[in-house]
Task: inverse folding
């Protein structure tokens, strides 16, 4: 094992420098950052007795539509290397070791936010779908009606209450809930929450405003938490009410909830604002997040697939093994399996004679399992071997919507 367990007294000062180099550090938030580093699993990479790399992970829950219960996910919450420690191999090795430690402790899968495409593919990760970010004028929101009660405003000191509301929000397929201290860190000095309480005083739905640039914006939302369509509409009315002052606000959409459908003349205003860089009205999409399976049986056993049953042999390769030494019992998911997708799905070790075979990487199979791509479409972007009949059968069986973490990693 190359990574050294983080010790606050010994490593925090050096690790803070890695965060400063990455522009992650916020002045005045040292205590919260130290607690965050201690909250989950933390490994450092040392060079000449000094920590030059820090790798962090924490536990969370992942909502898969075809599982009755949420799955335990390892969230890779931070991989940073100081400028003088770059190109030493710490980022890849420490990430792999966090994955192994988490897998050995029972996590079913892992997720992260990537700094660039390709790096974490070497560790078995595959892309999640693109996310849509919409920049709009609050005054253009067409949602009609009145809010049920005066909104409340909460700040960084209210992070526990805010996190509890996030944890109880409506969860789309692929949603995860992270560690409470993730919410604490995201509630920076400039951020605040506008939301609503019920008759018992409990915060039920809210929108986080991450920052506002200048008197008239643009403003940027970090997240929205709601449980019902009525609560969503009330948050839209709340954002609409900001239009007297705020000209532009950026909102990240949830899959299947298109904000364009509730805007007045969005295409016209997108054209008109193109000549104003940074204030363009319209949507942009990108994929920052990735996912990978750590435990095949936990991810497959018990899935209730809605389509016709399909059984097949699976040959899986997992590149993470190259980054792990003999101190770990978990070496990835490379192997041969028999998979049955049905109302009571299962996976067993070894191939079954007579079944067709699907061959791919663990990252590619993860994209199939979580709905990031259909089996047939994987042929265009990933390396996958399987007959057309098998791929079409998987298309009919796995009728999953696109996943979205709905959580900044």
Result:
């Amino acid at each position: 094992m190359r990574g050294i367990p983080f010790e606050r007294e010994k490593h925090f000062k050096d690790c803070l420098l890695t965060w400063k180099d990455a522009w992650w550090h916020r002045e005045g938030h040292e205590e919260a950052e130290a607690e965050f580093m201690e909250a989950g699993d933390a490994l450092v990479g040392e060079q000449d007795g000094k920590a030059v790399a820090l790798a962090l992970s924490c536990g969370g829950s992942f909502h898969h539509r075809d599982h009755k219960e949420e799955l335990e996910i390892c969230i890779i919450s931070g991989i940073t290397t100081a400028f003088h420690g770059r190109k030493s191999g710490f980022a890849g090795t420490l990430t792999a070791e966090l994955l192994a430690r988490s897998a050995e402790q029972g996590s079913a899968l892992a997720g992260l936010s990537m700094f660039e495409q390709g790096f974490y593919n070497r560790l078995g990760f595959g892309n999640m779908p693109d996310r849509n970010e919409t920049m709009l004028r609050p005054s253009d929101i067409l949602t009609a009606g009145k809010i049920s009660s005066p909104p409340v405003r909460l700040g960084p000191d209210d992070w526990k209450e805010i996190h509890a509301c996030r944890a109880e929000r409506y969860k789309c397929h692929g949603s995860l809930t992270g560690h409470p201290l993730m919410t604490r860190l995201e509630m920076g000095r400039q951020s605040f929450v506008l939301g609503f309480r019920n008759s018992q005083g409990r915060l039920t739905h809210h929108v986080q405003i991450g920052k506002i640039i200048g008197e008239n914006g643009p403003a940027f939302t970090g997240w929205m938490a709601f449980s019902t369509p009525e609560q969503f509409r009330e948050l839209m009315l709340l954002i609409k009410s900001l239009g007297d002052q705020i000209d532009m606000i950026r909102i990240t959409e949830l899959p299947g909830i298109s904000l364009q459908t509730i805007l007045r003349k969005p295409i016209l205003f997108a054209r008109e604002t193109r000549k104003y860089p940074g204030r363009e009205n319209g949507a942009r999409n990108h994929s920052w997040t990735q996912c990978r399976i750590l435990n095949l049986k936990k991810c497959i056993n018990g899935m209730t697939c809605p389509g016709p049953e399909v059984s097949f042999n699976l040959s899986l390769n997992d590149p993470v093994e190259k980054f792990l030494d003999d101190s770990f019992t978990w070496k990835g998911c490379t192997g041969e399996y028999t998979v049955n997708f049905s109302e009571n799905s299962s996976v067993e070790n070894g191939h079954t004679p007579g079944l067709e075979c699907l061959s791919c990487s663990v990252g590619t199979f993860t994209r199939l399992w979580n709905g990031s791509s259909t089996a047939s479409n994987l042929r265009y972007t990933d390396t996958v071997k399987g007959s057309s009949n098998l791929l079409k059968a998987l298309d009919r069986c796995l009728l999953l919507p696109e996943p979205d973490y709905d959580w900044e990693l």
About this structure: The two ends are 25 Å apart (CA to CA). The chain has eleven helices and 20 strands. The longest strand covers residues 50-62. The longest helix spans residues 90-104.
